[in-house]
Amino acid sequence: MRKLVLEDEAQRHIQALLISEPKLIKKIFDLIGDVQKHPFEGIGKPEALKHELTGYWSRRITDKHRLVYQVTDDDIIIIRCKDHYDDK
Q1: What residues does each domain of the chain span?
Q2: The organism sits in which domain of life (predicted)?
Q3: Fewest 10 Å CB contacts: which of 21, 43, 50, 83?
Q4: Looking at domain 3-79, which of 3.30.2310.20, 3.40.605.10, 1.25.10.10, 3.60.40.10 is its CATH number?
Q5: Cα–Cα distance measured from residue 86 to residue 36, given in angstroms and rounded to the nearest whole number
Q6: CB within 8 A of 29, min separation 6: which ones?
Q7: What CA–CA distance (Å, rounded) separates 53 from 58?
Q8: In this structure, what DSSP letter does residue 9 have?
Q9: Tens-of-pLDDT digits for all 88 residues of the chain?
Q10: pTM for the full predicted model
Q11: 69 — phi, psi (to 5°)?
């Protein structure tokens, strides 16, 4: 199984969502668990991202929030989990 890595931005997002939308935390961790088992299919409608985000994947947390991650041979790197990847 690949090692899970949470980027600093993803950690900040989880901390912010604990305060603003705590009910989403379980869903985020359910998605992360599914990503570890099945990186390219499963719950949250996995989608390969394009253009400047080629090489990254996205899953829906809600209509507003996306889990964005990258899969390498050794790691699953969680990049962000708040807002839409176009909303920076």
Answers
A1: 3-79
A2: Bacteria
A3: 50
A4: 3.30.2310.20
A5: 24
A6: none
A7: 10
A8: H
A9: 899 999 999 999 999 999 999 999 999 999 999 999 999 999 999 999 999 999 999 999 999 999 999 999 999 999 999 987 555 5
A10: 0.92
A11: -145, 165
In the residue annotation, 84 being an active-site residue is answered as yes
Distance of CA 64 to the CA centre of its chain: 13
DSSP state at residue 72: -
* DSSP secondary structure of 10-59: HHHHHHHHHHH-TTHHHHHHHHHHHHHH-TTSSTT--EE--GGGTTEEEE
Token look-up 């939308």 returns 21
